[in-house]
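call fold(seq) -> C-alpha cells
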Amino acid sequence: QIFLYLKYGVFLIPTAVAWWLITQAPLLISGYLLNSGDVAMYAISNRIPNMIAIFAFIILPVGGKNLALIYQVDPSGFKKKFFRYSIYWSMAFLLISIVVLIMNWFFLTKWYPDYRLGFVIQLLQVANSFFIAVLSFLTYAYISTKKIKCSSLTSIITGVIGAFISYILGLKFGLIGVIGGMSIGIIIGLALTVLHIRSISLESDSF
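ret:
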C-alpha cells in the first residue's frame, strides 16, 4: 500500500512543477524581458485574478471528490458525466470572472481613468485565471481515475508550450504579449487535455 502511494506521489512532483510554471512563468518572463514598470503593472493587475484563482482552488477539491465518488459508482458512465460537469463548472467560473471584471472596470474607470491599459492587462490575466481553473478541473478526470501519469504529462506540456509562446510574444509585444502568450498556451493545453481524455479508456487500471 505504501509503495502504491509512493508511485502516485512521484508523478505529483512534476505536476506541481508544471503548475508552478503555468502560474509563475509570465512574471518571470516579464522580469527578464521587460522593465520594472511593466513588472509592477503585472503585479498590481494580478491581484483581482489571484482572488478568482484562490476561489477556484478552494471549491475545486469539492468537485474532485464528487467526481471520485461518481467513478466508484459508475466507471463506464464516468466520462459522459465528467464532460457535462465540466461545462457547468466552466460556466460558473466564467460568470464569476465576468462579474469581477465588470465591477473592476466600473470602479477603476470612474476613479482612475488613466488605468485603461492596466485593465486590458487585467482582462488577459482574468482570462488566464479562468483557463487555469477549467484546466485544473479537467485534470480531476485523471486524478479521480488514478491516471496520475497522464495528469503530469498534460500539465508539463501545457506549461512548456505556454512559457515558450509567452517568451516569443513578449519579445515583440511586451507585457501584453507575455500574458497573452500564456493564454494561448493554456488554451492549447485545454484542447490537448480534452482530446486526450476523450481518446483514452478511463476504466483501465494503469496510471
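The longest helix spans residues 78-111.
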